[in-house]
Amino acid sequence: MKFSPLALDNACLITLPKEMVMSQTPTLRAAITRQIEAGCNKLVLDLHQVEYIDSSGLSILVSALKLTQKKAGEIILLSPSAGVRALIELTRLHQIFTIYEDEAAAIEHICEL
């Protein structure tokens, strides 16, 4: 997982790993939570490398969204693969997350808020 600060002090691009599965959930959740608690309440979660995500991986996304919303922030999902997007749509998470395919557009959107 890679954290990249954006133009705003409270915005960050997070590139997620190839797999988001139960064995990694505590580590990933803790790292993202630390970032939010440190003041980054506007996140772009880059999913382009994620090849597999299970329900515990999806729970990380939902937990992060709830935490950022408590801090008047937002999360944007960036470039999910076809399989990951299908799971996001199957679970109807596309109705609560904004999803972008273009990194520049996602960053522009998050930095305007």
From TrEMBL:
Q: Name one GO molecular function term.
A: anti-sigma factor antagonist activity
Q: Where are the transmembrane segments?
A: none
CDD domains, per this entry? STAS_anti-anti-sigma_factors
Task: Name the Pfam families for this protein.
Answer: STAS
The superkingdom of the source organism is Bacteria
Question: What residue stretches are annotated with the STAS domain?
Answer: 1-110
**Can you tell me which family this protein belongs to?**
Belongs to the anti-sigma-factor antagonist family.
Protein name in the entry: Anti-sigma factor antagonist
